[in-house]
Amino acid sequence: MKPILILTAVDGEARPIQSLLYGTKSMQVAGLPVIRGYCAGQRVYLFTSGPGTFNTAARLSVLLSRIHPKLILQAGCGGMYPGSGLVMGGLAVATMELDLHTGLESPSVLPSPLPFSLLDNGPHRPGLYPAHESLVRSAMAILRNENLNPVSGPFVTLSCVSTSGERATAIREETGAIIENMEGAAAFHTAALYHIPILELRSVSNPAGTRRKEDWDLKTAFLRAAEGVGSLLKAAIQP
Ligand SMILES: O=C(O)c1cccc(C(=O)CC[C@H]2O[C@@H](n3cnc4c(=O)[nH]cnc43)[C@H](O)[C@@H]2O)c1
């Protein structure tokens, strides 16, 4: 049976997920460190790409040239936009990923569409990656069943993290996004190139737009994201 690939950006996100696995073995695949293990009878690879779109696209692509998962489960933390309905530590499932740094410069936060596609196997607006609808539905049902109160909605990926409430509010108002992060669109893009379904789950570590340390709780977000991953694996989520 094909494995599930769990993709994180930073070690802090991976550690509590690793503790869900048994029969683990650290190995190198194409020179990249990967943990292989099992959860609820399901073969799993756990891979940490490093933060940001470049690390994610480059390293995930190398990995996918060597392993062929049935599903990529991207998990980690993110900043919640105002009015998203999320709370600190809350779980969010992406219905689409929007790369805010690709397109034609425009007066608004959302770039105008480019006149060409970035993907040869998708009719997407450049920078907009729709999620796999039935996967999102299944994930939401599983997480609700576990009383984890998930919220689904668009996620935004950017390389330049919001540092003001004004910027976060403008992004929310223009895109309707619920979560800001630094990797999602890159993983969706790479998954599309390899024709592999992807599901993205994040837990809220901070309100988007604040750099005040007291507004951040990475540790709780890492634990809650892992809890969500554990629920999805135990319920045998399938693409
Ligand atoms: O921002 C910091 O000061 C900081 C310091 C040490 C570690 C970290 C992280 O591990 C977070 C990076 C990780 O988190 C995602 N993330 C979380 N909140 C946001 C946000 O408001 N805007 C964009 N990305 C966010 C991101 O995907 C990174 O992978 C942070």
Automatic annotation (TrEMBL):
Pfam families noted in UniProt = PNP_UDP_1
- The answer to whether keyword Cell inner membrane applies is no
- Keywords in UniProt for this one? Glycosidase, Hydrolase
Task: Output one GO MF annotation.
Answer: hydrolase activity, acting on glycosyl bonds
Q: What class of enzyme is it?
A: hydrolase
Entry's InterPro entries?
A: FL_hydrolase_MqnB, Nucleoside_phosphorylase_d, Nucleoside_phosphorylase_sf
Enzyme nomenclature, EC number:
3.2.2.26
Answer yes or no on keyword Hydrolase.
yes
Q: Which domain of life is it from?
A: Bacteria
User: PANTHER family attached here?
Assistant: 5'-METHYLTHIOADENOSINE/S-ADENOSYLHOMOCYSTEINE NUCLEOSIDASE, FUTALOSINE HYDROLASE
Name of protein = Futalosine hydrolase
Organism equals Desulfobotulus pelophilus
